[in-house]
Amino acid sequence: MKAVHFGAGNIGRGFVGLILHRAGYEVVFADVNASLIDALAAADSYVVHEVGEQGSTETVTGFRAINSATHEEAVVAEIATADVVTCAVGPTVLRFIAPVIARGLAARSSALPPVTVMACENAINATDALKAEITSALVPDVSALSRAVFANTAVDRIVPNQAPDAGLDVTVEDFFEWAIESGPFDAAVPDIPDAHFVPDLAPYIERKLFTVNTGHATLAYAAWVEGASTLSEALAVPSVFAAVKGVLQETKALLVAKHEFDPATQEAYLEKNLIRFANPYLTDTPERVGRQPLRKLSRHERFIGPAAELAERGLPFTALLTAVADALRFDPASDPQSAELATLLGTLSAEEFTAQVTGLEESHPLFPHVVSTVAAVQSAR
Ligand SMILES: NC(=O)c1ccc[n+]([C@@H]2O[C@H](COP(=O)([O-])OP(=O)(O)OC[C@H]3O[C@@H](n4cnc5c(N)ncnc54)[C@H](O)[C@@H]3O)[C@@H](O)[C@H]2O)c1
Ligand SMILES: O=P(O)(O)OC[C@@H](O)[C@@H](O)[C@H](O)[C@H](O)CO
């Protein structure tokens, strides 16, 4: 079995590549980072260090690596004969890899079984977004779409940026979860024993994004405001801990009301995540977890997504607004989106900023609350 995986970064090597290798796939990594691809192509193996209470070490072998910027034809040929295509490149990069996948599908023999395509990004229904981009790339002849099965997934494992001297090895937390929707598969689901296949992915992806990622981003932005250099250091500050716990209680209320999760089970889930965020064996930073604040402040993302639904249901969302206020203060020099955010804050009215950045409609019950939050941050600058 062969898998082509776009994005040989933290989650690519430390999660998707590892799990597919364990499942018996030969993994072909495709990435535009020349030094990373050269190192992978020259290596026989890399090591994944799983750290935490259940720490262990695992070696990944049997992979190949192709530079998709300079050797697109080779990636197209691999996709034409692959069993699985995955990606972990970031939601904003899907439109760049889609034309390559489209070409791979067009080159694929219709005699082969369809290839499974799964985007492993932190976004609701990222595979649907990838499929839409692939469709655009195939227009006007979209018949090659029938040579693929597209399945949405929810992936969860904290993989921080790696130490400069780590080489290809990756240090990851010991926890992971990979949920894949089963509906798109007619007969058999792909053979990935560490993944679980579920008929309805929505509760899983929303529980993950609105608990793990909402809490994580709240922690990152509060840590940045606090001047903390690591997330575990910030979480030890009582006011930061309270801010994170506050958003998790609000999103818990939404998840329980919307998906009928058992409240005690959801409480245990959020408590487990507080422990994950404080993992003393991992060094994770506000810069990584807060990266791309404009993406994180968008309509269906980890803050505005749940806050909007809470407002619609008449449930509290004040802790989420406080997290949004902290996000507006995120300004590391390394993050181009935070510079863009600062420019927008300085040039738009609070109403214009709210409409443009969050995508909320003026008539939405959350809109005036976000406007007030933005105005307060603007007047304090
Ligand atoms: N790191 C985590 O803890 C984690 C966990 C779950 C999900 N995710 C999601 O996985 C995705 C990747 O995150 P990451 O932390 O691994 O980031 P990363 O920056 O470590 O890796 C991304 C990789 O994609 C590559 N890339 C960029 N443009 C490309 C292109 N056009 N073609 C091929 N490769 C390209 C980059 O060179 C890089 O190696 C994001 O959507 C993230 O939200 C991350
Ligand atoms: O990858 P992002 O930028 O969407 O979010 C940053 C982190 O919250 C994220 O990478 C988590 O570590 C991951 O989602 C845990 O499963």
UniProtKB/TrEMBL annotation:
Alphabetized GO MF terms: mannitol-1-phosphate 5-dehydrogenase activity
Domain Mannitol dehydrogenase N-terminal positions: 1-192
CC per GO annotation: cytosol
Catalysed conversion reaction: D-mannitol 1-phosphate + NAD(+) = beta-D-fructose 6-phosphate + NADH + H(+)
GO BP, one annotated term: mannitol catabolic process
Keywords for this protein: NAD, Oxidoreductase
Superkingdom as given in the UniProt entry: Bacteria
Enzyme class: oxidoreductase
E.C. numbers: 1.1.1.17
Name this polypeptide is given: Mannitol-1-phosphate 5-dehydrogenase
Native source organism of the sequence: Cnuibacter physcomitrellae
